[in-house]
Amino acid sequence: KGAPRRLTAGNPAWDTHPVFSPDGKTLAYLAMAVPGYESDRFRVTTLPWPVGKATPRALTEGWDRSPHNLAWTADGKSLLATADHLGQHALFAIDARSGAARALVTDGTVRGPVAGQAALYFTLDTLRGPAELFTAALDGGGLRPLTQLNAARLAAVQMGEPRQFTFKGWNDETVHGWIVEPARGTKGRAPVVMLIHGGPQGSFANNFHYRWNPQIYAAAGYGVVMVDFHGSTGYGQAFTDSIQGDWGGKPLVDLQRGLEQALGANPWMDPKRVCPLGASYGGYLVNWIAGAWPDRFNCLVSHDGNLDERAAYFQTEELWFPERDHLGTPWDNPEGYEKHNPVNLVKHWKTPMLVIHGARDFRVVETQGLGTFNALQRRGIRSQLLYFPDENHWVLKPHNSIQWHETVLDWLAEHLQRKR
Fold it and tell me: Considering the entire predicted model, what is its pTM?
C-alpha cells in the first residue's frame, strides 16, 4: 500500500518488461538509450533487488540486437529473449553474468518463451503456417510441437513455398528478402506482387501474418517478393538507423535491386507483370515509387500512405516520429520533408493505383489517402478508392478484412491479367 517508487529515473528513454530472477535478488528489464525513438535498440538491463545504491547494468550493450519477451531460466543463470534476426524472430539465451547471447531457435517466429526445470516452451509460427505451442531442450535442441491445433485446416489448403535470399543493395551492402512461390505451381510465367513492409523500422520475418500474409497472393497464383530494405530491424542498429533522413533513397535502391535479383534468379516469374503493395510507410513508398520509378509496374496498391510529408507532420498524432526520421521539424529542416516527398513527383504519375484508407487513422490521416486518390483522378490515371469509415491504421474487423482482400485481389487480377 506504499507509494510507488520510480526505479529508472536516471534513464529518460523507454524502460519496460520487468521480470524478477527466481531467487528474487535481481530485477531484469529492457531499456532503450535514446529518448523519443521507439526503434532504438533495447538492452537487457539488470538491477539488484532490493534497490540500493547500485546503478542499473546494461547487460547486453555489446549485443547488436533488440530483444523482446524477456524471461528467466529456472536456475537464474540465463535470460530468454526473442529478437528480430536476419529475417527471422529468433530465440536467444543470455548469460546473466556476462551478457553473452546464444541462439537457440533461429527458424521462424518465436513468442512468449518460458523455461521449466528441463525444457523450454514457446509458440512458433512460420510463413508456412500459424502458431503452435512448441517445446525444446534448454539448449534449443530437440525442437518439437506440443499442439497441432491447425493441422486439419492446413491439410486442406496448399501453401506457397517460401525461400529466403540475399543480394547487394544500396552501397553494395547485404540485404535480405523472401520469395514465396505460387501455391499450385506455375503454368508458364507467374505474375508477381512485391509487398513493402511498414515501420519503416520493421521486418518481413518468417511468420504467419494475419493482415499482410504472402500466402494470400501465393494462393491466387502470384509469386511474392518481400525485401527487408535499409531501415529494417534484425540486421543491427546501424542498418535500422540508416533510413533516417533518407526515406526514399536507400529503400528504393534496395527494392530495385532486390526485385531485379528475384526476377533474374526465378525464371518462372514474369518481369512484365509486377505490382507493389504497401501500407503505412509501405504506402508512402508506393506513393514515392509512383513518381520516382514510374515506368516499371502494371499497378500499385497504397494503403494508409502519406502523400505529403510536410502536411502529414501537422496532422499526425506521432510528432516525435517524423521529427526523428526527418531530422527535425518542417520549419527547422524543411529539406528533410521535401527531399523525398511524393507530392512533389505527382506530375510523373502514370501507373494505375488502388488507394485504401481508414477514417479513424490518426497516424496517417484520411486526407492523405483522399489526396492521393484526388491526384490520381485529376491526372486521369485509372484509380480506385476503398474507404473504411470504421477502421483506423489497420483493418481489424473480419468482414472489412474480407472486403479488403477481395478488392485487392480483384485489382491485381485486372492489371496483372490473372483470372481468379
Answer: 0.95
Distance in angstroms (rounded) separating the CA atoms of residues 395 and 402: 10
Q: What cell does 8 get?
A: 529508472
User: Per DSSP, which regions of 77-161 are E strands?
Assistant: 78-85, 88-95, 101-105, 109-115, 119-126, 129-137, 144-145
| DSSP of 40-99 | SPPEEEEEESS--SPPPEETTTT--S-EEEEEE-TTSSEEEEEEEETTEEEEEEEETTT-
CA distance 104 to 291: 44
Alpha-carbon gap, residue 220 to 226, rounded angstroms:
17
pLDDT beneath 70: ranges in the chain: 1, 418-420
| Residues 66 and 83 sit within 8 Å (Cβ to Cβ) | yes
Alpha carbon of residue 283 to chain centroid:
13
Which helix (H) or strand (E) segment holds residue 372: the answer is helix 366-378
Residues identified as active-site: 280, 361, 393
- Residue 325: alpha-carbon gap to chain centroid: 16
**Could you report the per-residue pLDDT of 210-240, keeping only the tens digit for each?**
889 999 999 999 999 999 999 999 999 999 9
In whole angstroms, what separates CA 259 from the centre of its chain? 18
Helix crossing, 250-265 with 281-292: angle to 10°?
A: 80
Three-state secondary-structure class, residue 217: helix
Per-residue pLDDT tens over the stretch 12-48: 999 999 999 999 999 999 999 999 899 999 999 999 9
Q: How many whole angstroms separate alpha carbon 397 and alpha carbon 186?
A: 33
- Express each pLDDT in 116-146 by its tens digit: 999 999 999 999 999 999 999 999 999 999 9
Bridge partners (DSSP) of residue 110 are 124
Residues 19, 72 contacting (CB under 8 angstroms): yes
Can you say whether the dihedral through the CA atoms of 161, 162, 165, 171 is positive or negative?
positive
Q: Please, which residues bridge with residue 204 across strands?
A: none
Amino acid type, 256:
Q
- How far apart are the C-alpha atoms of 45 and 378, rounded to whole Å? 54
